[in-house]
Amino acid sequence: MARLKFAGDNAFHVAVRQRVTAHLRASGRRERDCPEMYAKTAMIFASFAASYGLLTFVADAWWQAVPLAILLAFSVAAIGFNVMHDASHGAYSDRPLVNRLMALSLDLVGGSSHFWHWKHVVFHHTFVNVIGYDTDINLAGLGRLTPHHARASIHRWQHWYVWLLYGVMAIKWHLYDDFRLVLNGRMGPHVAPPPRGRQLAIFVAGKAAFLLLAFGLPLLVHPVWVVVTFYALTAAVLGLVLGAVFQLAHCVEHADFPREISPGQIDNAWAIHQVETTVDFARDSLLASWLLGGLNFQIEHHLFARLCHVNYPAIAPIVERTCAEFGVRYQRNPTVLAALRSHYRWLRQMGAAPATP
């Protein structure tokens, strides 16, 4: 894996960790194994099972199937945002086995917990918004998300067409990306180790389970064209939700895209880099915080990735005050709509601006 070194002044990081830890202990909040997280998990999986069962075995008209397909897509997204995401960071439970089992929920709904660990937990969280390191800011030339990427003429329209790319992202992920990664492991400039032994068995079993759920069982009761149509609809809604939400914290106005001051060297401490490359949004929305699994508290997540997301609303004011004290730039958009508009404006700006020398 490529190496990137950050500046050594960790005073801000030490202070914010001490203050958050003290607050959690004083308030009696659990860092992991939170009862509200377990209740939330049950509700999300119940929604997934109900929407899948009704769509596959009960709906017999398009006006029934379309809303159920959309609900199923949101249920799958909720599994990813809440259960899988926390578990992949070791933030769901103090017990590693529970984290591993909950992380496998991604395999059930079409992804790979093995490759997600490398792409998101390792490559993104280590190198957030650094060109040549963070795989999440690379759209393979189809879109331009940073001022340091080369600009192509097609990018002038990206604020319109990129939403279609988000829509096909889940289909590409389900049916192509993970299989390609098994063969070559290439994630931008990085190479992820291929799954072996038990990991490979989990990968194969997960893909088999997903294909059974997505195509096998529905084909027992519906024609092929119906199954393909509603898989495409569900996956398109899922891809659009995933693609948009994961961009709202990093590929927006006011997020930093720092470059190396010398090969392999960033002129900022790690924790400050995490804050200034990230923008919170909709912090005051209980609905957004519940549905998005704390992804609207991305600054807090990047500083405390092993803390269950149900704690983020409680610690966000502490993080923000500590940033102000240390002169660290803390940014947030007030609503989901404001964050979407900021992402749209950023896409339009990157589509028009030349590359930074």
Molecular structure report:
With 357 residues, the chain is mainly α. It has one domain (1-357). It is 61% helix and 5% strand. It has a two-stranded parallel sheet. It has a two-stranded antiparallel sheet with strand order 2-3. Strand 2 (186-187) and strand 3 (190-191) form a beta hairpin. The longest helix has 27 residues, at 62-88.
Question: Could you give a short description of this structure?
Answer:
The protein is mainly alpha-helical and 357 residues long. The protein has 14 helices and six strands. The protein has helices at 11-27, 35-57, 62-88, 96-103, 105-108, 113-126, 158-184, 198-221, 224-247, 270-276, 286-291, 298-303, 312-326, 336-352, and strands at 5-7, 186-187, 190-191, 265-269, 279-281, 331-333.
Order of helices and strands: EHHHHHHHEEHHEHEHHHEH
Overall body shape:
globular
Strand content: 5-15%
Query: What distance lies between the first and last C-alpha atoms, to the nearest angstrom?
Result: 26 Å
Total helical elements: 14
Main pleated sheet: 2 strands, parallel
User: Residue share in helices?
Assistant: 55-70%
**Low-confidence stretches at least 5 residues in length (pLDDT < 50)?**
none
| Structural class based on helices, strands and sheet pairing | mainly alpha
Number of domains: 1
**Largest beta sheet: what is the strand line-up?**
1-4
Mean pLDDT equals 95
Please count the beta strands (DSSP E, at least 2 residues each).
6
How large, in whole angstroms, is the Cα Rg? Answer: 20 Å
